[in-house]
């Protein structure tokens, strides 16, 4: 099984990217072929190599497009939704 963990671009580090790295590390220990990508867009040929596309962060404007392409390629989609109150850190 091959899994793509698709995050937001890593312009700045945050808990979401840390969570994605921990997830990838733990799944690799279980023998799962997994790769992290912070690319804004990934071509269909590359996406087609994966069985599951795991979306971590939904703050990027292209998330609906990511889901649409994954569905068109008949890929299983897993979503980890994170919530952060906008007041946090202000």
Could you characterize what this model shows?
It is a single chain. With 90 residues, this protein is an alpha/beta fold. It has one domain. 32% of the residues lie in helices and 20% in strands. A 4-stranded parallel sheet has the order 2-1-3-4, with helices on both faces. Strand 3, helix 3 (63-72) and strand 4 form a beta-alpha-beta unit.
Draw up the topology in text.
Elements: E1 2-6, H1 15-29, E2 33-37, H2 44-47, E3 52-55, H3 63-72, E4 76-79
Parallel strand pairs: 1-2, 1-3, 3-4
Q: Could you list some keywords that capture this structure?
A:
4-stranded parallel β-sheet; 20% strand; single chain; 90 residues; alpha/beta
Quick structural summary:
The chain has 90 residues and is an alpha/beta fold.
Span of the ends, CA to CA: 41 Å
Query: Helical region count?
Result: 3
Shape: globular
Taken as a percent bin, the fraction of beta residues is 15-25%
Count of DSSP E strands? 4
Main β-sheet, in a few words?
4 strands, parallel
Side by side, the strands of the main sheet go 2-1-3-4
Average pLDDT, all residues = 84
Q: Which bin fits the share of residues in helices? A: 25-40%
Q: What's the gyration radius in Å?
A: 13 Å
> What are the secondary-structure elements, in order, as H or E?
EHEHEHE
Output the structural class. Answer: alpha/beta
How many distinct folded domains? 1
Low-confidence segments, given as residue ranges, are none
């Amino acid at each position: 099984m091959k899994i793509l963990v698709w995050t937001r671009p890593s312009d700045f580090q945050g808990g979401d990217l840390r969570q994605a790295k921990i997830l990838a590390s733990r799944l690799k220990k279980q023998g799962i072929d997994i790769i992290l990508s912070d690319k804004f867009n990934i071509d269909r040929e590359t996406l087609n190599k994966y069985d599951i596309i795991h979306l971590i962060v939904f703050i990027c404007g292209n998330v609906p497009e990511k889901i649409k392409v994954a569905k068109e390629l008949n890929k299983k989609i897993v979503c980890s939704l994170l919530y952060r109150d906008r007041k946090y850190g202000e």
